Amino acid sequence: MEKILEVNDLKTYFYTEKGVLPAVDGLSFHLKEGEVLAIVGESGCGKSVSSMSLINMVPYPGKIAGGEILYKGEDIVKKTPAQMQKIRGSQISIIFQDPISSLNPVFKIGRQLNETLMQHRGLSKSEANEQAVLSLASVGIPDPISFLHKYPHELSGGMCQRVMIAIALCCGPKILIADEPTTALDVTIQAQILRLLKSLKDERDTSIILITHDMGVVAQMADRVLVMYAGQAVEEASVYEIFENPKHPYTIGLLNSIPKPGNDKTLYNIKGTVPGLGEYPSGCRFAPRCDMHSENCDNNPPQLYEVAENRYVRCNKFRRENL
For residue 17, what are the contacts with CB-CB under 8 A and spacing of at least 6? Predict the structure, then answer.
C-alpha cells in the first residue's frame, strides 16, 4: 500500500504568558491507503493536538512550530487558509469527541450537510439535498428524509455521531480522523459506531486515524498502533506486535491496566500522572512513572529506536542494541 500521509518531526507549541509549551514535540509517522492507524495514550499526551495539527486547525494560542505534514507529497503546513479550506472536508475529514456540541445547534441537520456538499462538491441545493439523504442512509439512519428537518438537540448521542460521520464522509475524503469517536456513547452504541466505521473503511478504502485511550477499541479496529506520551511517540508497531509483545514500559502499563475476565486481583495502575506542558523531565519523560527506570533514564532523553523492521521504541533499554 502507498503512503497517503507522512508526518515528519511535527512540533506544535502553545505560546502563552508562561512561555512556550510543547504539546507535540517531534512527532513522526505515516499512514497508508486503506489503513487504520490508532494513536493511543492517556489524556494530555498530545493526541488531540496532533489531530488538529493534521488539518492545520490548532486552536489559539497554539501554532505548528516545525516539521512537515505531507498529504500526497504536498506539505499541508505551507498551505494558505484558502487552500486548506478546500482540503478539509473534501480530502481530510475529522470526527470530534463530542458529537452533540460539534453540530451547530441552531441549524437543521439538512442545512449542515448541504453546506458541506455545496461548498466542496459544487452541488446545487436540490442536488445537495438528494446527496444528503443518501449520506444519512449510508450511516444507518432510518427515515433519513425526516432527519433533514431535525435539530441536533432532538437526536440521541449515537444519532448525532452518525450525522457527524455522514458529514465527514459525504464528500468522499481519502483520510478520516476519528478523535475519540465513542467516548460519550454507551457500550451498545459504541459497538454500532465502530462497526459502521469498519464497514465504511472496507467499502470505500478510506484511511482512518483513530485517536483513543481505549485499548479494546484499538484491538478491534487498528492495523498499526502509535503510542504517545508527553507529546512524543514512544512506540510504533503493528497491532499484533503491540498486544503480543509490547516493548515500551508505558505500552506495557497501558495493556496491564485492561481488566481481564476471571482476574479478581486489583487492577494495575501506572503510578503518577502525565506531566503538564512545560513540566517535562530533562531525561526520559516517562522515567518518573516507570517501574524499570534507572539513573541513566533521568539524564539521557531516549531517541526513537528502530528495534525491528517497522518497529520503533523510545526507550534507553534499546540504546546499546542500536549503536
Answer: none
Give the C-alpha distances (Å, rounded to integers) separating 132 from 3, 135, 147, 151, 287. 30, 5, 10, 15, 50
Count Cβ atoms below 10 Å from residue 276 Cβ, excluding itself: 10
- In the prediction, which pLDDT does 323 show? 39
Nearest Cα to 87, choosing from 19, 155, 171, 204?
171
Q: Helix H segments across the chain?
A: 47-54, 81-87, 99-102, 109-121, 125-138, 144-147, 157-169, 187-204, 215-221, 239-244, 249-256, 295-299
Q: What is the secondary structure of 14-28 as a DSSP string?
A: EEETTEEEEEEEEEE
Q: Which residue do the cell numbers 492507524 mark?
A: 37
How many other C-beta atoms can be found within 10 angstroms of the C-beta atom of residue 252? 18
Residues 244 and 252: beta-carbon distance below 8 Å: no
Q: Name, in order, each residue with C-beta under 8 angstroms of 25's C-beta and a sequence gap of 6 or more.
A: 11, 46, 230, 231, 232
How far apart CA 302 and CA 316 sit, in angstroms, is 5
Q: What is the pTM of this model?
A: 0.91
Neighbouring-strand partners of residue 15:
20
In this structure, what C-alpha cell is assigned to residue 276? 503538564
Question: Domains of the chain (ranges plus CATH)?
Answer: 3-91+173-322 (3.40.50.300)
Give the tens place of pLDDT for each residue, 170-198. Answer: 888 999 999 988 776 778 878 888 888 88
